Amino acid sequence: MRVALAQTDCRLGDVEGNLADAERIIKQAAEREADLVVFPELSLTGYALGRLTDNVSDISLWPDDPRLAALSRHGPDVVIGLLEDGRIRRHNSALYLSNGALVHNHRKLYLPNYLIWEERKHASPGQHMRAFDTRHGRFATLVCNDAWQPMLPWLAAQDGAELLIVPANSAAKPTGGSFDPAEYWHDLLTFTARMQQCWVVFVNRVGDEAGVRFWGGSRVLDPWGSVVTAAPDWEESLTVVDIDLRAVRKRRHEIPLLADARMGLLRRELERLITESGGD
Q: Which UniProt keywords apply (predicted)?
């Protein structure tokens, strides 16, 4: 299977322009015989939604918008990020499109709302984490901060995911302190690939938006946690790599870390914690 990492910049609020750029890049990936093209989080809308001016019309999109379906009619499957119009609520969503049809819609589950991040002001969290079948294999999507929640990659792997797709909008040192997002992402992605024994495709954006600079550094890791390809930092790129999904079964057979899940134990302890905390 050949995967293309579309490490792109985008223009805040310019859905039509971003769609045109995405289509151009998908055609380039098709020329390189890619099976799947992955774009960053919110790649059709931009991230700083609170900075949109009053004269900008609603930029949310229906998942069944024909312009989205058209993106996957050039050959490769496509993962694209957008602000989804969910009728009553909006969502930070990543769609998996194939042959002109929507295969899966992942609504970001954990929306940061601290420091410079204000996602809960503009979107509602999703309610489901599901692996899904594609013509290439069984995948799951985790949008940016979702991947920082240890239980979600584990749930995806337990649901049979052989490849985790992680679109992101990760900025360079957003707090101005010692926290280095690139270093954290490196450690996190290595841990996730090793412990869930699956391929991980991480695609981060680049460019400047609302005073924030995005660093790129997209990459693919194998089920042993090794980086098999990486895009450059700070600049747009289309990086193509071949992966073998059979390596997942091989690795999970060699060291069966996921086999003894103890679902009943987890259910009992989660129910206890929910009861004690009064939460959901």
A: Hydrolase
